[in-house]
Amino acid sequence: MVERASKFVLVVAGSACFMLILYQYAGPGLSLGAPGGRAPPDDLDLFPTPDPHYEKKYYFPVRELERSLRFDMKGDDVIVFLHIQKTGGTTFGRHLVQNVRLEVPCDCRPGQKKCTCYRPNRRETWLFSRFSTGWSCGLHADWTELTNCVPGVLDRRDPAGLRSPR
């Protein structure tokens, strides 16, 4: 009988702790958690003045964000895909070689990790990424490594007579 009563007390105490924790997390967002049972007004500005210690490190002018660039696949332009880890880069890289509608889509064979992405009427690649050229500049190459490595890799891949200035 004592064992049964101790189990009941344990269940009641556990339920009370659970409800207390639940109220602590959910209560402040509800009108129940506000003093007097009323929710704060919607126009309440939580940060009325900017933090004087915050220093704006990056400034992107609107004209830079709204500029448009033309990519000429039939010309000599090359897209170099810089993969940044944990940002969805693998999914986006696969999307570039598998799902983009192009005049000449990338040739992706089942079971093969790399796809062949040639320009129309030429055997030159228009995409430099791990899914088209492999890890040509090393595993998870950063901006500096790609800047130094890509021109040399592309020059080795293109036939000598067809090389154009990059």
Automatic annotation (TrEMBL):
Compartments reported by the entry: Membrane
EC number: 2.8.2.-
Cellular compartments per GO CC: membrane
Keyword tags: Glycoprotein, Membrane, Signal-anchor, Transferase, Transmembrane, Transmembrane helix
Main localization category: membrane
Catalytically driven reaction(s): alpha-D-glucosaminyl-[heparan sulfate](n) + 3'-phosphoadenylyl sulfate = 6-sulfo-alpha-D-glucosaminyl-[heparan sulfate](n) + adenosine 3',5'-bisphosphate + H(+)
The protein's role, per its UniProt record: 6-O-sulfation enzyme which catalyzes the transfer of sulfate from 3'-phosphoadenosine 5'-phosphosulfate (PAPS) to position 6 of the N-sulfoglucosamine residue (GlcNS) of heparan sulfate.
Family membership noted in the UniProt record: Belongs to the sulfotransferase 6 family.
Name of the protein: Heparan-sulfate 6-O-sulfotransferase
Native organism: Neotoma lepida
